[in-house]
Specification:
By secondary structure, the chain is mainly beta. The protein has a single domain (16-120), classed as OB fold (Dihydrolipoamide Acetyltransferase, E2P). It contains one helix and six strands.
Length: 141
């Protein structure tokens, strides 16, 4: 049985620059047939917040896709990219609120940060800080 409270307001969307983690990465094709990565990310500070983003690997979106890949891959990367290798990668993401089909949602703000809305986790943007990781209790075994 699930406990539901229909009187609760919708959660507020909180745009800005936050640390996110890739929870799903898949090869896909755009509507024009161009190769792309489809990403699903969650906000590290609130795992209930999710965003979806596409990283174009060909076609007209390649220039932005290449910028985004700068936060995900080494600058000299050459070869086959396994999308599963991106799962668990943390990065800074700039988000903004966008309307889509009459609903508001968070989306990547490609005009901010160093890599088209993305930035490597180790390259902390001004005014941000890496969250403290919870202490891990040693195993008694």
């Amino acid at each position: 049985m699930v406990n539901i409270d229909m009187t609760q307001p919708d959660r507020a969307l909180v745009p800005g620059i936050d640390l996110w983690e890739i929870m799903k990465s898949e090869d896909e094709k755009s509507s024009k047939g161009d190769a792309m990565l489809s990403l699903k990310l969650f906000r590290v500070s609130n795992k209930a917040d999710h965003i979806f983003d596409s990283v174009m690997l060909a076609g007209n979106g390649w220039s932005i896709g290449k910028k985004k890949l700068g936060a995900l891959l080494p600058a000299d990367f050459k070869g086959n990219l396994d999308p599963l290798n991106l799962v668990g990668v943390r990065l800074w993401v700039s988000t903004t609120i966008d309307s889509y089909n009459g609903k508001e949602r968070l989306k990547v703000n490609i005009s901010e940060l160093k890599h088209g809305g993305f930035q490597k986790a180790a390259d902390v943007p001004p005014g941000c800080a890496l969250p403290e990781e919870p202490a891990v209790e040693p195993s008694p075994f």
